[in-house]
Backbone:
C-alpha cells in the first residue's frame, strides 16, 4: 500500500505535467492561429505599392522645392553682396566728395 507522501508527489507531478501540456497546447494553438491569418491579398499589396509611389512622388517634390529654395537663397546672398558693395562705393564717394 503506497504511503500518503508518494500519492502527494504523484499528484504534484501529474499537476505539473498537466500545466506543461496545457502551456504547450496553448502556445501551439496560438502559433497555428497566427500562422493561418490569411496573409495579405492582392488589393492590400496594390494599396501598399500605390502608397510607396505616392511617397516617392512627394519626396521628389520636396527635393525639387529644396533645390528651388537653395537657388533663391543663393540669389538673395548675391543681391546682398551687391548691396554691400554699392554701399561701400557710396561711402567711399561720400568720403572723397565733401
Residues:
Amino acid at each position: 500500500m503506497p504511503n500518503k507522501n508518494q500519492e502527494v508527489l504523484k499528484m504534484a507531478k501529474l499537476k505539473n505535467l498537466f500545466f506543461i501540456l496545457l502551456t504547450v497546447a496553448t502556445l501551439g494553438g496560438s502559433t497555428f492561429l497566427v500562422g493561418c491569418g490569411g496573409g495579405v491579398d492582392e488589393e492590400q499589396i496594390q494599396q501598399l505599392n500605390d502608397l510607396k509611389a505616392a511617397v516617392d512622388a512627394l519626396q521628389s517634390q520636396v527635393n525639387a522645392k529644396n533645390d528651388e529654395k537653395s537657388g533663391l537663397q543663393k540669389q538673395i546672398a548675391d543681391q546682398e553682396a551687391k548691396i554691400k558693395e554699392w554701399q561701400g562705393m557710396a561711402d567711399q564717394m561720400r568720403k572723397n566728395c565733401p
Q: What stands out?
A: The first helix runs from residue 4 to 35. DSSP finds two helices and no strands in the chain. Residues 52-98 form one domain.
